[in-house]
Design brief:
Elements lengths: L1 H125 L1
Length: 127
């Protein structure tokens, strides 16, 4: 009977060895999965950092856009005032051009009259 008990003990030890081998394999798989999870977490943290940087850039651009938008009414007012000034200058220029044409016409008439008078004087002298 003692041999039978020894055989049972050996058989149970063999089963225990098999169980320990399976436990070691499971632990190895768990460690591998844990390393994979760590790599994934590291990659996700890097992506999160990049996303935060992108968000910071977007926020900065948004602030710049808000500043530009705040200036739009002032720019619009300046454009309207400039447009009014340009219209006034165009009107003044038109009036000056009209006056210049009138003066040019008057000078032309005076020049013709002067030439006619000179011609008349020369005719009188030649008589």
């Amino acid at each position: 009977m003692s041999e039978q008990i020894l055989n049972q003990i050996v058989e149970k030890l063999n089963h225990m060895d098999e169980g320990q081998r399976q436990i070691r394999q499971a632990i190895t798989r768990i460690v591998d999965e844990q390393q994979h999870i760590k790599q994934t977490v590291n990659r996700l943290e890097e992506e999160q950092r990049q996303i935060r940087q992108a968000i910071t850039c977007i926020v900065d651009e948004q602030q710049h856009i808000k500043q530009v938008i705040a200036d739009i009414p002032l720019i619009r007012q300046a454009v309207l005032e400039t447009r009014d000034d340009v219209k006034r200058l165009e009107n003044a220029l038109y009036k000056l051009a009209a006056a210049q044409n009138d003066h040019g016409y008057s000078i032309d008439i005076l020049h013709r009259e002067q030439l006619r008078i000179k011609t008349d004087i020369e005719k009188i002298k030649n008589r």
